[in-house]
From TrEMBL:
The keyword Metal-binding does not apply. Signal peptide: none annotated. This is ABC transporter ATP-binding protein. It is a multi-pass membrane protein. It is found in: Cell membrane. It holds the Pfam family ABC_tran.
Length: 646
């Protein structure tokens, strides 16, 4: 090996970003979060005063129904408290009227005070009861809200596990799932917002009743006067929501970037790759995009609110002018005029609360729609398969199989036909991207064919009950999950066998995980997770042994091993392949590996190229034939047997 001495000047030249580094291709793709659904944008455009008036009762009903299902006593308590609070408000307004009338009546001051005190007491009692009810409302809402969100999240989890795996390949699905996730999180706001709305309606009803009793013209006039502000508020809420909606993808990008920059998995690469400035710069770019959109929305919202306030102010002047006119022309007593002032303020505040709260609950309602629509449809990808329950398959047959991923431009597999029987090991080999993993997923029924068929003992995988079928599949994928669970649960996957720990230890002995388990501080009880989750960490190869143990522990008819020894040391790898024939005695085994020495263990080898099977046969047959397998074998074999110069 030649070592070049790097001087200071060389290093400076390397570190200085040259023209190439600075250059950004004009047609380079920009990182963006793709929403192909557009449904929320359409829905958000419909936030108008008329739609709001139509939709609000439905949303309040929905929030009450949800609350009722989760905690009916809390829901009932909230409704009763709000109704009582409204009644107290009406009582308070009447007490104001009584107090003012008594104070302005004839007679000496003591007599007037004496006449006013019952109303003052009533006023104090009404105010006291209202604030006590307010405390109860906050208590019940904060009890109910989080419960509703947790319930919504649970139902979302359930729905997600019931969709086809292919759903994850469709961009629309990810977006709907994210939206539903946000909907579940926000469901708890519905309680508070529903309560605010009911409180506003109760105040409005109380104030309106008093105002109408004072003079019938006042209420319609006030309603008219509040209209401009209501329209402006709803408009501003729509603008803000749309801006948030459009920036939603960018917010998501930020959280993805934050995760990549901060998470431990890439911390070494961020440093060694000197990527910090570059990544933070990307983050800043996206932040600036969001800030620009926020500023635009804030400016538009402020303009709308200002116009609404000016129009509303002028209209309010008309209302107050009317009160003065009624007073001046003797059509209203001074006591009633005083009450009217309070009632007008109450009704005005309630109307503004109704509109602002209405806009908020409409927005929450849109998020909730995302959640409930996702639950109904599971993002449009709910599994709709047969109900036949399979036993361990004796033969899995693939006939003229074609498979194309959602939105992909080309087929990943084309015209593939072969079979694999119980007791047989079939190996899939080929270049990266030739379709091996995809084919294994089709054999396991994780994907269904686009055309052609995959059958288990003659039954197409689409006709089988998916969960029953997967209980017959033991899969070691290239990227296996590292569950933050105990070592035992990581192996049994929540399905312990009758043999209990004896079976677990037996599977460990076959995979080589026995050496891993003995070194764990609490054996099978040790939680396998990062330190900060209270667990003990494993190395990459140790995790792969655990992943293999899972498959060996499961009594399944189909064993799929996708690069099962990529992280194992030579001894560990030898152990797996030496034991494979014994494991295959009762199962059909599909093995994917780039280490061609290992495929000698297979009964048959299928060579894939660009989604097609270009060769098949036994190891000696394929080595003897001209073709891709011999090319790959010769290249690998020559390299492996080549002795490095010392
Ligand atoms: N989720 C996906 N969505 C769209 N295309 C995909 C997806 N997964 C794989 N592909 C494409 O399908 C083709 C086959 O991929 P597959 O993972 O089956 O290859 P492979 O032979 O297992 O590769 P490797 O040896 O690298 O594991 C590739 O062209 C790949 O880009």
């Amino acid at each position: 090996m030649r070592i070049r001495r790097v001087g200071v000047a060389d290093r400076a030249a390397e570190e200085k970003p040259g023209p190439v580094a600075d250059e950004v291709a004009a047609d380079a793709e920009e990182l963006q979060y793709v929403d192909r659904t557009g449904s929320r944008e359409r829905a958000a455009r419909q936030i108008r005063l008329v739609d709001m008036a139509r939709r609000l009762p439905q949303l309040v009903r929905r929030s009450v129904a949800l609350a009722w299902r989760i905690d009916r006593w809390a829901a009932l308590g909230l409704l009763v408290c709000q109704a009582a609070s409204g009644a107290m408000q009406a009582l308070g307004l009447l007490a104001v009227s009584g107090t003012i009338t008594a104070l302005l009546s004839g007679g000496d001051i003591y007599g007037r005070l004496l006449g006013a005190w019952p109303s003052v007491v009533l006023l104090a009692v009404a105010a006291g009861v209202r604030s006590a009810l307010g405390i109860v409302v906050v208590w019940l809402s904060s009890r109910l809200g989080p419960q509703m969100s947790r319930e919504a999240e649970l139902r979302l989890l359930q729905a997600v596990t019931e969709v086809e795996l292919s759903a994850y390949d469709a961009p629309g699905f990810t977006h709907r799932k994210e939206a539903a996730d946000r909907g579940a999180e926000i469901v708890q706001d519905l309680v508070g917002e529903g309560q605010d709305l009911i409180a506003s309606v109760a105040s409005l009803a109380a104030g309106a009743a008093v105002l109408t009793a004072l003079h019938p013209a006042l209420l319609p006039l006030l309603a008219l006067a509040s209209l401009p502000q209501a329209v402006a508020q709803v408009g501003a809420a729509r603008v803000r929501y749309l801006a948030r909606l459009r920036a939603g993808g960018d917010y998501r990008l930020l959280s993805i970037l934050r995760w990549h920059v901060c998470d431990r998995y890439a911390a070494d690469q961020v440093r060694a790759g000197t990527m910090a400035d570059f990544l933070v710069g990307r983050y800043r770019q996206i932040t600036e995009r969001i800030n620009r959109a926020d500023r635009r929305a804030a400016n538009t919202g402020a303009r709308m609110s200002a116009v609404g306030a000016v129009c509303g102010g002028l209209a309010s002047a008309v209302v107050w002018g009317t009160v003065v006119w009624l007073l001046a022309t003797g059509r209203m007593s001074v006591g009633h005029a005083g009450t009217a002032v309070f009632a007008l303020q109450t009704v005005g505040t309630a109307l503004r609360g109704l509109v602002a709260g209405g806009a908020r609950i409409m927005r929450t309602g849109l998020y909730m729609d995302d959640w409930s629509e996702f639950l109904t449809e599971a993002g449009g990808f709910r599994m709709r398969r047969g109900t036949l329950v399979p036993t361990a398959p004796r033969e899995i047959r693939v006939e003229d199989l074609v498979f194309r991923y959602e939105e992909a431009a080309h087929d990943a597999l084309r015209g593939v036909s072969f079979d694999v029987r119980r007791g047989e090991v079939v190996a899939l080999v080929g270049y990266n991207g030739s379709g091996k993993t995809t084919l294994a997923k089709l054999l396991s029924g994780l994907y269904l064919p686009t055309t052609g068929a995959v059958t288990w003992d003659g039954v197409p995988t689409g006709d089988l009950d998916p969960h029953a079928m997967w209980s017959q599949v033991a899969l070691v994928p290239q990227e296996y999950a590292r569950w933050p669970l105990s070592a035992r649960e990581n192996i049994t996957l929540g399905r312990p066998t009758e043999g209990g720990d004896a079976d677990v230890h037996d599977a460990c002995a076959r995979s080589g995980a026995d050496e891993v388990i003995t070194e764990l501080r609490s054996g099978l009880d040790t939680v396998l997770a990062r330190d900060w989750l209270g667990g003990q960490e494993l190395s990459g190869g140790q995790w792969q042994r655990i992943a293999l143990t899972r498959a060996f522990h499961r009594s399944a008819g189909l064993l799929v091993l996708d690069e099962p020894t990529s992280a194992l040391d030579p001894l560990g790898e030898h152990r797996i392949f030496a034991g494979l024939r014994r494991i295959a005695a009762t199962r059909a085994v599909v093995l994917i590996t780039h280490r061609l020495t290992n495929v000698a263990v297979a009964d048959r080898i299928l060579v894939l190229d660009k989604g097609r099977v270009v060769q098949q046969g036994t190891f000696p047959e394929l080595v003897a034939q001209d073709g891709l397998f011999r090319e790959l074998w010769t290249y690998q074999h020559t390299r492996e047997t080549h002795q490095p110069e010392l």
